[in-house]
């Protein structure tokens, strides 16, 4: 896609660094305001994590990962190197500060605050996403089939009820199902699955790369400029911002947005913001179309993965490996998930799949960073959405456009402030 665009665009009002789903949404909201936009990415449109995620629009997924429940489960999960949560042995010491902050964010009072913030962002995210895709003439890429979370024992089902009660209090519709109703929602489930929870308004997209590509086309057709280059440094200059590229050239803009996902931390640090961004390395296998008669996305919560019907096939993926950006992939995790999926969906044909790993940008409190850089209101950060980047993309684009226009944001942004970790760090001392 990148070869179709001019490599030497003119300076812009706003430079958006990062052409994943978050950067694309920001750019789309800005061009809708009539702003002059320069979109920059080192690889191309949606060539990193946004290319092959699970495709869920998880607007009902309001429960933060940082929670008392996860703290209770984590020690057991960590004993299994191929389980739902793992930390590479060579990376564990480097993770300690992040894990300490995660522990602070999992305290009941902090968890409730994060839950409230996540709920507000999700309420904005759903209508914003539908509006965004309608503007890009891509509404047909949204599928409203609902989701089904399944349980292999009554004890597992009972352990999830508190979370469903919190969703009910937030106005989220769901239905607990067993027996014939469960089997009708998804034929072919293993006999070990005894119950489920159906979320009727859960949505998926036909394919996340198709969605991102549609947004990219719309942004370019609306007049945005494009540059494929790696931004190595950012500096404040009189009247704006200077972005310097790996090959030594530079470009100036009046304002800038940092939306480079898991790679955002070093640019924020150059502006004086030490943000504890880590990576949830997620794995998946995409099987050919027809590998299973999948009616909707199936969530295997106890195992930390989902199975999603896409236009490109059946995608089996999820789980969390904390291992940074430099360690090589461990595709045994993909194979292990696929084996579990075959046990839980006995008719699943597992041959012919394509393995993939992506870097989910994650912060200890499970909330993204959306806000001005400490050093200048001319720079806005938009990263750290974890596994909810696609879901929260349009809401983030909407909010960033408001911040750059010096408008009051649609929701309170205090919980998403870039400097909030300075307050959290006081609790580590």
TrEMBL record:
Q: What class of enzyme is it?
A: oxidoreductase
First and last residue of the signal peptide: none
Q: Which GO terms describe its molecular function?
A: oxidoreductase activity
Domain FAD dependent oxidoreductase intervals: 13-403
Q: Name one Pfam family in it.
A: DAO
- What Enzyme Commission number(s) does the record list for this chain? 1.4.99.-
Q: Which UniProt keywords apply?
A: Oxidoreductase
The protein's name in its UniProt record: D-amino-acid dehydrogenase
- Species, as recorded: Hydrogenophaga palleronii
Q: State the organism's lineage.
A: Bacteria, Pseudomonadati, Pseudomonadota, Betaproteobacteria, Burkholderiales
